[in-house]
Amino acid sequence: MPGIGVYVCHCGLNIAGVVDVEKVTEYAAKLPDVAVARHYTYMCSDPGQRMIQEDIKAQKLDRVVIATCSPRMHEETFRKAVAEAGLNPYLLEIVNLREHVSWAHSHERKKATKKAMDLVKMGVARAKLLEPLEKRKVKVERNVLVVGGGIAGMQSALDLANAGFKVYLVEKSPSIGGRMAQLDKTFPTLDCSACILTPKMVDVAKHPNVTLLTNSEVTGVSGFVGNYEVTVTRRPRYVEEAKCVGCELCTQVCPVKVADKFNENLGQTRAICIYSSHAVPKVAIIDPKNCLRLKTKKKEVCGKCLQACEAEAINFEQKPETLKLKVGGVIIAVGSEVFDASKMPEFGYGRFKNVISNIEFERISDASGPTSGKIVSPLTGQAPKTIAFIQCVGSRDKRFHEYCCRVGCMVALKQAILAREKIGEDVRIYVCYIDLRSFGKGYEEFYRRARDLDIDFVDGVPSEIHCAQDGTLYFDVFEKGTNKLIEIRADLVVLANGLVPSGDVTRVNELFHASRSADGFLLEAHPKLRPLESSTAGIFLAGACQGPKDIPDTVAQASGAAAKIVDLLSSGEIELEPLKAFVDKDLCSGCRVCESVCPFLAIEMKPEVVDGEERLRAEVIEALCQGCGACCVACPTGAVRAKHFTDEQVLAQVEAACAVGEN
Amino acid sequence: MGLTDLMSMAKPNLESREKILRKLRSRDPINCFQCMKCTSGCTALKLLELEPHEIEKLVNFGFVDELAASDIIWTCVTCLKCVQRCPQKASPYHVIMALRNLSVEREAKVPEALMKAVSQILETGLAESYQKVTTRKMETCDRESLKLPKISAPTESFQAIFMKALEER
Amino acid sequence: MKVAVYWGCRILTSQFAYEMSVREAFPKLGVELVDFREAICCGDPVKSINDFASNYLGAKVLALANSTGLEDLLVPCNRCHFVVSEAKRLMDEDENTHNKIAALLKEEGLSYNPEVKVWHVIDFLHDHVGLGCVKKAVVKPLKGMKLAVHYGCQILRYSDLGRVDDAEDPRKLDGLIGAIGAETVDYAEKLDCCGSHLMYSHVDSGLSLAGQKLKAVQSLGVDGLVVSCPDCGTMFDAKQKDAAATAGAKLNVPVLYYTQLLGLALGIWQNKLGLHLNQSPVDQLLSKVTI
User: Fold this and answer.
1) What was the pLDDT predicted at B15?
2) CATH of the domain at C185
3) Is residue C291 part of a domain?
4) Which of C168, C169, C188 is closest, CB to CB, to A466?
5) Which of B33, B37, B51 sits opposite A463 (nearest CB)?
6) Residues C256, C281 within the same domain
7) Which residues of B are less than 8 Å from A346 in CB distance?
8) Burial class (CB in 10 A: 0-12, 13-18, 19+), C44
9) Number of domains chain C contains
């Protein structure tokens, strides 16, 4: 006869403040097969756990029921505790007296206590039928995939490579570096972005443990945590990486001008070019949509680059390559995009040449950019006399994106300071804001620096921007501090376009089944305590793809994600929870309904010979199964069952709940 | 009385505020975070000193009674720019209209011409009366002379029904 | 095609030219207009007094449209279009108000039909009749004519309600003017308000706003200003002299309803389009149109 121990937790006053825990314990003690019933202030504490462990040993308990907070809080803790006392950890039942009783019914003590007693009775009924289960160990691959070669991806890759893991770094553009490579200076130190970034880019490219796959994208994913198989497609550069020396002679002779994507379409480059000023790898790439030979598909057309290239690196016949990689874990670091302000026509972006975005300002300010670092008004090419920064464009706006983009204020402060330092005193600089957020280390001091430089902070934003005949912009702003309407005329307006989820996030969502939060960014497992894990086991998040953030937070998160991977893969194997579905083959008719309803593709049909005939029988792929139970419900014969949640166990609870004639 | 005069004796009245929010069928106005967009673009600001952001804030704090008794709420041009541009859907125009309704309910100030329009509707169904107009050549015309069709006035029952509607709070 | 038409107050009582030009031009585009059984205010001035009563009137307009048996309602006035659209939104989404208003409508044997679609002259011509159809019917394209457009406020804003054209970059009336052979000119003050609502309480400010806009249009050097709302029409045309006095400017801007120009392009005689009624100096524009 099983002896059950029932333990009722006070949870301080969280439970005991509403539920009469003594009464519940007395009630539990009288239930059939209950050998001992106790209550205690904090069951999860050391003394609480020890109490349970001593009872298990002394009273030879073979089932334990703990009536406490949600199993999501401490089920793992309690399982470890009973295991240490020699009892199989799956012979433990948690009854939720907090989220399901005291917190939900805090104003009805009597009814809450009655409900608590009913729930404990149900828990005991189920506990009787629990079976011992064992975790299973699976071997894992020691390779890691990092998707995205910006600062987040690069940092994770370096940390993992240094820790001895083999890393595949996949980047969709022709060079790594991401958004940070487009920046001029970084706040709050005003470090030159390229100067602090390029050493890392070179380290990544040179590291023996890193395989750099640029101009590539992930096109398929299968498998499960520890054993992923990822398909990567390498798009052709039409230039051989091993041969190209980065001399750029090809670019000089190419007749086709194309918009320069790295420079935010502010300048032009050629159909064959090196993607960015500090590109790694420093290898040319041909744009097949604009290259005369490639788009006409005629072999006699142009070919000037072919003639000019002394390294004989150009290869118009290059084809896309498909790689299949086996990895144990994945870090998603695909970054974000900048809000397209042409969605807010009232500010004139896209219509008025002198209205630019913050990222366009970065390229103008950067010495390697289209104006060689001179800050100019796009229309005149001259230094502006008045610059106005407008904050929160597309952010904090229910019409577009509700969230705060987190970096807009600091970027504007930085750009305002740079404008002052580069142009001098002869320019009037306004920053029109709703709130000025300078929250990080050194950030408030940076804001002070901006004010000291005679930059005018206008507490209020305009409703619309107009353009005069000569291209100058004018607008009115009502200013909170002075309670006056200020009329501003500017020859350069810089919009603080917010960071928004990139199209890549949608792809990642589909390929890796990594969920997205309501704002469109990738969803972390817990907003406070698990910011680096996605909703899928083995897939981790780093950088702006999880939410807009600045460089310090990105780097911290990237290193954290790398550490998570080390944690996951370093022992060479992982344990799988045994709470999976299983098939009683004798009852399986091979109807395949379970296979069709499984959302995780965790059921396969295996052919078997039965009585001389080949039949299909369902089999659960334990590593993929998440124990959701959909197959169990769908199975017409009851052949598929969920371990730890069998029909008998669940129905026992129902019967206990419905039993008539109780106090 | 000007708004400043009224505000110097002001005490918040959250009940009145609830009346306004219930009329608006929305709690969005309490979301206003004072970005100044509405006032920056307000058509009535320069000529009549209407500051929609101030109205939002005063309502949020509960100074509804003072606003309902003020002149300022009657300066709104109803251009709807504030509704279009507000990033928090706080819709100052709708708040102002609700304040106007409250002002009428309490028989505070209402522009005469508006009251005239309403009584005209009660009498004839239309807010304006049929006019004679002159051409550039100083000839007089009206609907009849221009051969425009006559459209009947509403039946007698309309007046009572409209009165009933006007009594709804 | 048939469409029920609701004129509101101002068109019926004073802005006859708008009504005349719509009644003359639309049949030439194959559109038959069906009037209501009675003339009633949409409730625009009542919005400031009692929004329930105003919505009742707006819903009554929709119910009167329903009585014609047609499911398309043409509302040539901007303000009526806005009031009726807000009333429709409320009838469709607020059960409580819907029931109260439905009871009042029932007393006059009327009922609200959610299928009735509300059109303005601009989107009716641009989207329902179609630009192509308008173009085809043109016999006298207004070649060489340069015009400034005034859409007005209440048919463009607020976007969430579903309006006639894009609130920040409206192009449909520009397209309709292009279809009759003329050109339009963009200008910074394009979306500015005519000030008509202020005529109830702050007449000088209202006229000032109208005057400011007319000044801006005048400096463009265009042949005229096109409107499509009787309130805007009253401010810019009938009250141009008063606006000039208030704004302290000399104003000489021809102001016409789009449908008057449309009528001209369709070959209809001037006076049938009420062009003799416009108070602004339209003769200088008409002289450019080859008769």
Assistant:
1) 93
2) 3.40.50.11810
3) no
4) C188
5) B37
6) yes
7) 85
8) buried
9) 2
Residues C109 and C194 in one domain: no
List, in order, residues 6 or more apart from A537 with CB less than 8 Å away.
A224, A225
Q: Is A308 exposed, middle or buried, given 0-12, 13-18 or 19+ CB atoms closer than 10 A?
A: middle
Query: Do C159 and C275 fall within a single domain?
Result: yes
Nearest in space to A276 (alpha carbons), one of A386, A187, A180, A348: A180
CB interface of B with A, residues 45-74, below 8 Å: 45-46, 51, 53
Looking at residue C290, its pLDDT comes to 63
Q: Is residue C78 located within the same domain as residue C135?
A: no
Q: Which residue of C has its CA nearest to A473?
A: C188
Confidence of residue A207 (pLDDT cuts 50, 70, 90): very high
SS3 B94: helix
Instruction: Give the mean pLDDT of B126-137.
Output: 95
Confidence of residue B2 (pLDDT cuts 50, 70, 90): low
- Residues C230 and C193 both lie in one domain: yes
- For C125, counting Cβ atoms within 10 Å of its Cβ (0-12 exposed, 13-18 middle, 19+ buried), the class is buried
Predicted confidence (pLDDT) at residue C266 exceeds the cutoff of 60: yes
Quick: pLDDT tens for A81-137. Answer: 999 999 999 999 999 999 999 999 999 999 999 999 999 999 999 999 999 999 989
- Whether the predicted pLDDT of A347 surpasses 80: yes
Last residue in a domain, options C84, C119, C154: C119
CB A523 within 8 A of CB A541: no
Q: What is the DSSP string of A196-245?
A: HHHHHHHHHHH-TTEEEE-SEEEEEEEEETTEEEEEEEEPP-SB-TTT--
Shortest CA distance from A436: residue in chain B: B35
pLDDT at A2: 58
Interface test with C, best of A347, A466, A470, A474 (most C CBs within 10 A): A466
* Structural domains of chain A ordered from first start: 4-135 (3.40.50), 143-235+320-335+502-569 (3.50.50.60), 249-308 (no CATH), 337-500 (3.50.50.60), 581-642 (3.30.70.3270)
Provide the whole-model pTM: 0.89
The 10 Å Cβ neighbour count of residue C241 is 12
DSSP C179-220: HTT-EEE--GGGG----GGGGGT-HHHHHHHHHHHHHHHHTT
Which residues in chain C touch residue B94, judged by CB atoms under 8 angstroms apart? Answer: none
Q: Which domain holds residue C138?
A: 131-286
Query: In the structure encoding, which two tokens stand for residue C167, read together?
Result: 């609130």
Contact C202 B75 (CB under 8 A): yes
Q: Considering the domain boundaries, does residue C126 fall inside one? A: no
Do residues A151 and A203 lie in contact, with contact meaning Cβ atoms separated by under 8 Å?
A: no
Asked if the interface predicted TM-score (ipTM) of this complex is over 0.85, the answer is: yes
Residue A344 to residue C188, Cβ atoms within 8 A: no
Question: How much is the average pLDDT of B35-47?
Answer: 97
Q: Please check whether residues C137 and C185 belong to one and the same domain.
A: yes
**Above 70 in pLDDT, residue A661?**
no
Gap between the Cα atoms of C97 and C46, Å rounded: 17
* DSSP states along C49-111: T-HHHHHHHHHHHHHHHHHTT-SEEE--SHHHHHHHHHHHHHHHH-HHHHHHHHHHHHTTT--
Partner-chain contact B130 C13, CB within 8 Å: yes
C138 and C273 share one domain? yes
Confirm if A630 and A598 have CB atoms less than 8 A apart: yes
Which of C98, C119, C140 corresponds to the end of one domain? C119
> Residue B51: its chain A contacts at CB < 8 A?
478
Same structural domain, C189 and C81: no
